[in-house]
Amino acid sequence: MTNHSKIHIIGLTREELTVELQKVGLEAFRTKQVWQWMYGRGATRFDQMSSIAKKQQQMLDEHFIIDRPKIDKDLLSFDGTRKWLLEFEDKNKVETVFIPEEDRGALCVSSQVGCTLTCTFCHTGTQPLVRNLRARDIIGQVMVARDGLNEWNKKREDCLFTNIVMMGMGEPLMNYDNVAKALNIIMDGEGISISKRKITLSTSGVVPLIERCGNELGVNLAVSLHATNDALRDEIVPINKKYPIKELLQACRDYPAANNARRITFEYVMLKGVNDSDADARELVRLLKGIHAKVNLIPFNPWKGAPYECSSRNRINAFADIVNAAGYSAPVRATRGQDIYAACGQLKSDSERAKGQRVDLKAQ
To answer: How many Cα atoms within 13 Å fall on the side-chain side of residue 243?
Structure first.
């Protein structure tokens, strides 16, 4: 059987994996074994699964593939940030970024090739949507990072990679089904086993799916706000025309997983002379009243052709002081990986939609 006709099993649910194994004559109990080897130990070949007899290993190899995306580039910043440009079998590419901290490390994972949205300050937004990522494409990014950081067989307390942020290329809630499927597999305690409390999903404001995300996944929510009035947000975050600030903030107030211990993060990029005045800061405080919230102030990260400049450090600090004084935590996010274009808003691949190509919004 050629690789082309073999079934990719990364990204299948336990139930789906059981069905596929049984189709080729393997017992249902093999599901748990294969699952733990793939997601718990990072096996890349079936002959590494030593708890499975050789005959069954051969059967698995004959019918199935444990695949990873191809690493096109592996870049390391002077500050320790690492960026992978990953290529899938259809030659489309995404970027995935690992950001190490002293006591944790977050993997910034992409959900789409390109982006559904056209936020004007974001480099990814200049790349039209090519396709949604499948569950296996999303999980594959996590597995490549675990491979690259050599963390499959370490004790959890010794791992650098502790958190996932769905803040890479794409709008996760515009690809909800595949994102949810991938995250449920990632959160499974017998596999990759990253807790929902260690996962943050960032959205630009797809209001109808925010409640569903909270009910079904229970992960932390981050909202790309970036403006305090509809006129400006319509301009810089165009999805606001469909779901304006009032509707977005009500969805945040109602978010099932939000409480004092798990606040919603509001991301706010600092654009010189655009959204960074004292009046903007005071209005932001007013808007957030009644929401368990914190604010991440993000210095604008430039890219070639960008129409904005970053606010000055003094202006950012003055803005932060107003928000902090109102009782909301407002840290200024450190710019990481800027030298390898891995900073917030800088991700972009060279994947392009072919002329006349229909966008695949139901990738499986």
So the answer is: 20
- What integer pLDDT is reported at residue 121 of this predicted model? 84
* pLDDT at residue 19 greater than cutoff 70: yes
> What letter represents residue 328's amino acid?
Y
Q: What are phi and psi of 203, to 5 degrees?
A: -130, 150
95: annotated active-site residue: yes
Helix axes 245-253, 207-216, angle to 10 degrees: 10
Burial of 112 (0-12, 13-18, 19+ CB in 10 A): buried
Per-residue pLDDT tens over the stretch 45-96:
999 999 999 999 999 999 999 999 999 999 998 888 999 999 999 999 999 9
Q: What share of the chain is helix, strand, coil (3-state, %, to 5)?
A: 35, 20, 45
Higher-pLDDT residue of 105, 257 = 105
Domain 70-340 has CATH 3.40.50.2300: no
pTM: 0.91
According to DSSP, the residues that pair with 262 across neighbouring strands are 259
Q: Three-state SS for 128?
A: strand
β-pair type (112-113, 93-100)? unpaired
Give me the residue spans of the domains in the chain.
3-65, 70-340
Class of domain 3-65: mainly alpha
Dump pLDDT digits (tens) for 293-328.
999 999 998 878 888 999 999 999 999 999 999 999
Catalytic member of 95, 151, 171, 267: 95
CA dist., res. 35 & res. 14, Å (int): 8
The catalytic position among 108, 115, 122, 344 is: 344
How far is residue 185's CA from residue 199's CA, in Å, rounded to a whole number? Answer: 13
Give the gyration radius of the chain's Cα atoms.
Answer: 21
